[in-house]
Each structure stands twice: as structure tokens, then as C-alpha cells.
Amino acid sequence: MSGAAATARRPGRQADRVENKPAKVETFASLFNEMPVCDLIANLNTKVETFEVAGRIFPLTLNDADEAPNCYICCPTSAYIDYAMDEMRNFAAHPLLRRALKALIGACAPLARASGLDHQAQLNNWLYSTNPVPLLDRPTVASLRSALTARFPDRAIVIRSLNDIADPATIAALKAEGFRMLAARQIYIFADRSAAPAMTRDMKRDRARLRATPFERLGNGDFTEADYARAEMLYTMLYLDKYTPLNPHYSARYIAEMHRRGIISLTGLRRPGGELVAVTGLFENGGTLTQPIVGYDTGLPVADGLYRMVMAMAQDHATARGLFFNMSAGAAGFKRRRGAVAAIEYNAVYAGHLPRRRRMAIRVMETVLARVGIPLLRRFEL
To answer: Which end of the chain has less neighbouring CB within 10 Å, N or C?
Structure first.
């Protein structure tokens, strides 16, 4: 484990690494109010607003229960039922375990629906799979809880993307103010922000590949209109075709607008004088980096190392700027071999203002996920 990761794991320690600049939050919300959401993310239906409390500003999404099924970034039943069922493809070699897990998920489905979590106000939702959360102390949590429950008396209050490496103090404050912590997935943190992090053997190989590749490297200012359309194709090849169509369907228009408006930066690789073969979109928020867009031409030989190179480019971006890099979920072994450490990610839910039936369903979900879900996430690196 890196020194920074070890420091971050000490109870109660948390740097304020996420900034949520007001101009960026306003620009993001404006985009999703100027254009139909489905033109930007094809499988999503949501409303986007801004919310201010205690001198901080957040993007806020609103969803109604009758909009389900919806993309999991705004729909917990899709995350906990549909996405979990899709993950069963990872257990093809273990048919008995696969059947047992399917039965468990099926048994929990009525519980997830009874929770009413799809009828929600989600704070700090940038509509990514990973949304780094600013440091929240207990008075701020109490203020936002009071304001949101007063405004939305029938909605669950949700904050995604909390983990015990980046957010220990925030998690403690949320728990103290009555939020429930629902385990979601296992993610990977590249927390060594030194000028020269220790290079693993695989990291060295990736950078050697970058130096030797015949593909041209693109900077943030090198993208054209044609590149945006190609970026959508490459993202689709990887995240929708290879992984699962349950992932957000980011469109070329979304990638173009997020890039033009300075919300994400882009880098990639192209054939000399030709089309893109790999792309990644980086979201930098304060001292934290995430990578919401990754795509490459899956029809090219694995030996070309396209995925390895775009991940190396993101790690190098983090190191050059001294950023805490949340590498999100998936590709567990790949990320571990490149210096990342695992953490359980949680969804924080407040339901104290909701009917007893919904509160009890959420409490039972929290218990089942803690006792059964977390051990499974750790055992199978989901």
C-alpha cells in the first residue's frame, strides 16, 4: 500500500480534495437543462438542478419512482438488481455459486423495490459512475438533510460514491446524522500523489508501450467534430458492448459538450493521419481525478495495448498534477498491479422522514449488504 493510501485509511483523517467550483456546477446543470437529457445520455431520464448549503454548491438530480427502470446512476433498483444480475456473467465457471447468487438477488428484489429508493433526490450527482464527494462535516450534513427533507418530503436523500479511503470523516458525519450506508461495489484508488510514485513492473511496461506505439497521441486541444463521434463509438465498444448495456449511454453530443464547456478533458490515440483508436475523458475536481470516459477499438489486437496506454495516460495525468485518482470499479487485477488499492464504495441514504415501511426496507438492505454483499465484493473483486 502506498504511503498516501495508508495515511488515508487512518480513522477520522480526511483531506478536503473535492472542490465543486460554482462555475463548473452551474455549467454542468445548464447543459442538462438546455438539451434533452436523452440526447446526452440515451438511457437516462432525470432532472438536474443546483443545490447550495453552508457555502457549498452541488449538482442535484431528481427522479420519480415511475421512471424506473432507468440508468443505475439515478436508479438504485437498476444498480442493486439489474446490474447485480448482469454481474453473474463473471461466475460462469462456478454454476452452483451463480445459481445461489441469482436466487439471493431475486429474493432481495422486492426489498429494494419496497425501499422506494428510485424516488430520490441525489446530491452531488455529476451523472458519472463515480462522483467524488466534497468533505462534509456534521453541521453541514445536518443543514443539507434539513433543507432537502423539507423540500422533498416524499423522496429518499441519496449521496453516491463514498469510500473509506477518500471519505472517512464524511461517512462518520453522515452516519451521525442518520444516514444509512448501503455497500455498492469495490473500487480502486491510486492514492500515491508524489512526484514520482513507485513504478510497478506493469506500470513500467505500459509506459514503454506508450513510448513505442505507432499511434499518435492527442492532447486536450486536438479533438475535432469527427473525433467526438468516433469517441462515442469507442466508448460503446468497451462499456456497452464488451461490459454491459446497463452502463450510461454517453453520446457524441454529450462528449462534445462536456469537453467544449471545460467539464472534462480528453486525450487519446489515433492512427497516423487517421481515426481515433482509443480515448479517455478525465474529470478533475479539486485535488481528485476520475475517468468517466474510456473507450478503444476492441477489434484491434490486444497486443496493441490500447487500454493499458489510456490508463497509463490517466495515471500520469494524476501524478503530474498531484491528484488523488479514483480509478472506479472493474479490472481489479489490472488496477492492483498498477499501484491501486481496493476500497468498498457506499451509497449514503437518508430516509428518516419517509414512511416506516420504506425505512425498514432500507435498514434491512443495509444489514444484508454489510453481512453478505461486502464479503462477496471483496472475495470476487466486483
So the answer is: N
